[in-house]
Amino acid sequence: MDFLPNIIFGLLLIVGIGFFARNIGRLKSVIALGRPEDRGDQSGKRWAQMARIALGQSKMVVRPIAGIMHIIVYLGFIIINIEVLEIILDGLLGTHRIFAPLGKVYDVLIGTFEILALLVILAVVIFWIRRNVIRLKRFVTPEMKGWPKRDADYILYIEVVLMALFLTMNGADYQLQQLQVADYIQAGSFPVSQFLSPFLEGMSAESLVLLERTAWWLHITGILFFLNYLYYSKHLHILLAFPNTYYGSLEPKGKFNNLEAVTKEVKLMMDPTADPFAAPPADAPVPEKFGASDIMDLKWIQLLNAYTCTECGRCTSECPANQTGKKLSPRAIMMATRDRAEEVGKNILQNKGSFTPDGKQLLDDHISREELWACTSCNACVEACPVSIDPLSIIMDMRQYLVMEKSEAPTELNVMMTNIENNGAPWPFNQMDRLNWKNEN
Amino acid sequence: MSDTLQVPTMAEMMAQGKEPEILFWVGCSGSFDDRAKKITKAFVRILNKAGINFAVLGTEESCSGDPAKRAGNEFLFQMQAMTNIQVLNGYNIKKIVTTCPHCFNTLKNEYPGLGGNYQVLHHTSFLKQLLEEGKIGLEGGSYKGKRITYHDPCYLGRANGIFEAPRELIRKLDAELVEMKSCKQRGLCCGAGGAQMFKEPEKGDKDVNIERTEQALETQPDIIAAACPFCNTMMTDGVKGKEKEQSIKVVDVAELIADAEDL
Fold it and tell me: Do residue B176 and residue B94 come from a single domain?
């Protein structure tokens, strides 16, 4: 019976990590629905980009207040995870504070964790106030109603609870160390949780052990719960920010892809030796659809972008269309893409591996034309994103579908394009008059 | 004002067996829009003064395809691009300068994949080079102490990382360069990009160019400097909308320099 806690702990760990792994597998298969695009080149530059933007948080500090607090929470979570390693080892081996023999180093570690935990709580409280009391504009836009709003708050609550449990566990441990209760060896320093002493001093050793054990178990269970919550939440960014910045574009922002299928067509048209009546070979593949009307038409990187988005809204707050009251919000584009990807993913699961048309698509059912045509392609959203998401590329792919597959551009744009076709300028001027300015005064 | 502009075409050059150092890509706006034509001419005056061996395509130039591509018409874009590339390669063009950031971006970034490989410069970068080489001087002094705010064109700044060249030119004019609250990487669009120039905006509270003009007016400028014919149109309209056209001018960086040089 002595091993019962160890076995329970092992099972908890297997279930927690196993369920998470299953969901990550599902996530990968949905992202794989996207069209191929090579983003594996120039690995040196890519690692550097990831180190700078994800690890180094370089884009976060463009807005210093949110940026610095985010770094606190980020560092807090990464560094406190060293403690999680100890908890896991203790849980599996039935030990208590297995790293304690590190002595002074251990004291410094635990002390640091405690200070970070306190800072995390402070930062999270400020984040909560920004969302719920100050109600910053980017947190209360139409797309942030309902689940996205609750999701954001839940994350903050979970973080406070986890940190509070960690500090409670240490506070009780510290008392037990003072009382020299067996197994509670003298280890660690408790610069924050020692201030819990006034609340704990009157408690018996048994109650303290119960409190310490309860906090310990809830803390690790909470961490496993949080890990599994990620998949259902915008909070996935804490993992996906890394691959997303690695695979992020290395090109100048103004450079849009040239469609290869179109290049072949145009070359054929311009080739004087091409036979205009030639029938395509019998085994010629069906021509690829131009642009995107659903998530399967997007590239895998655009789907990864959608899952990486943590709905911070920096893109939307920088968007000229959104700033002037238009319906377009780059964040809503990313959220809609993820929603549709989820919908398609569930459809595939329910239909044993193949997608059954559901009469819906990304265009019109999730993203309206009004949004797509309001974009100035200024790249402010791409620049603003702290994790290299490119909402503009989705907008452009969907415009491409509307124009090339459906011929449904706004009338004025059709006029502009007809002008280019007829006279090589977006306005109805004769190409032969192009140099007239030379002799005008 | 100098008397006549020297604007040789590539066809004329070729007939004389000559090859210019650089092609000036004028762009549709610079060729046809009355306001933008003034920018074109100001730039040519600088080129003439500096003795630059350049030529234009003239009637052989055609739309770069940028507005078609941003509107979603990849086919039309590539038709334009490949036709232009045939002309450019036919003349053995190596280096291009243009006064339009949209043409600049497309020629520089999107033409290479279609077989058009050139060194492409925006005119502000080119003018900065001329200044550094001592081919132009800015002793005019008429801008001394004037407050000038510079509006970053998206396709020059954010899209291609060129923020400093136009600013250095303005500073060299002895003018006081004042920045708007959104500038450089975070510069606000004028509202014309992505083919918006050719359509009415979607429903909203305000037009983008008004928002941007308000940001510019906050700096209390004497002059709003732009480096893109479309931005110029949008900001000029914005200033008119605010009834400030008597006191605040919207000018291209090339015009500032031509003016300082008393051209």
Answer: no
Q: A260-269+289-431 belongs to which CATH class?
A: mainly alpha
- Residue that is last in its domain, among B129, B160, B191: B129
Which domain-ending residue is among B129, B159, B194?
B129
Which residues of chain B are within 8 Å of residue A265 when distances are taken between CB atoms?
A: 75
Task: Inform me whether the pLDDT recorded for A400 exceeds 90.
Answer: yes
**Mutate which of B25, B28, B82, B99 to test chain A, going by most A C-beta atoms within 10 A?**
B28
Q: Give me the pLDDT at residue B262, please.
A: 77
Q: Do residue B78 and residue B110 come from a single domain?
A: yes
Residue whose C-alpha is closest to residue B25's, from B103, B86, B85: B103
Does any CB of chain A come closer than 8 Å to the CB of residue B155?
Answer: yes
Instruction: Establish how many alpha carbons lie within 13 A of residue B199's alpha carbon, considering only the half-sphere containing its beta carbon.
Output: 25
Residue B125 and residue B77 in one domain: yes
Confidence at residue B85, expressed as pLDDT on a 0 to 100 scale: 98
pLDDT digits (tens, 9 = 90+) for A138-150: 999 999 999 999 9
Give the contacts of B167 (CB within 8 A, at least 6 positions apart): B150, B177
Contact flag B158-A379 (C-beta cutoff 8 Å): yes
A41 is written with which tokens?
């080149």
Measured between alpha carbons, how far is B100 from A169 in angstroms, rounded to an integer? 64
> B108 and B142: one domain?
no
| Close Cβ partners of A440 (under 8 Å, ≥ 6 residues apart) | B37
Residue B109 CB partners (closer than 8 Å, separation 6+): A251, A252, A254, A255, B160
Q: Is A414 on the interface with B (CB under 8 A)?
A: no
**Same domain, yes or no: B169 and B59:** no
CATH number where B58 lies = 3.40.50.1860
User: What confidence tens digit (pLDDT) does each residue in A17-40 have?
Assistant: 999 999 999 999 999 999 999 999
pLDDT value at B175 more than 50? yes
Closest residue in A to B199 (Cα–Cα): A412
- CATH code (residue B237): 3.40.50
Distance in Å, alpha carbon of A173 to nearest chain B alpha carbon? 50
User: Quick check: B1 pLDDT over 90?
Assistant: no
DSSP B151-179: PPPTTTTTTT---HHHHHHHHHTT-EEE-
Residue B5 domain-assigned (yes or no): no
- Which residue range is the domain that position B70 belongs to? 10-129
Residue B225 in 3-state DSSP? strand
Same domain, B112 and B15: yes
Q: Is A326 in Cβ contact with B202 (below 8 Å)?
A: yes
The mean pLDDT of chain A is: 94
Identify the residue with better confidence: A82 or B230.
B230
Cβ-contact A359, A389 below 8 angstroms: no
Q: Do B199 and A327 touch (CB under 8 A)?
A: no
**CA–CA distance, B96 with B52 (Å, rounded to integer):** 13
What pLDDT, in 10s, does the model give residues A167-178?
Answer: 999 999 999 999
B42 lies within 8 A of chain A by CB = no
Q: How many domains is chain B partitioned into structurally?
A: 2
Same domain assignment for residues B194 and B255 = yes
Q: Are residues B74 and B47 in the same domain?
A: yes
Which of A39, A375, A428 has the alpha carbon at shortest distance from B32?
A428
Q: Where are the alpha helices (DSSP H) in chain B?
A: 10-15, 27-32, 34-49, 66-71, 74-90, 101-105, 123-132, 164-172, 208-218, 229-241, 253-260
Q: Where are the domains of chain A?
A: 4-246, 260-269+289-431
Judge whether B1 lies within some domain: no
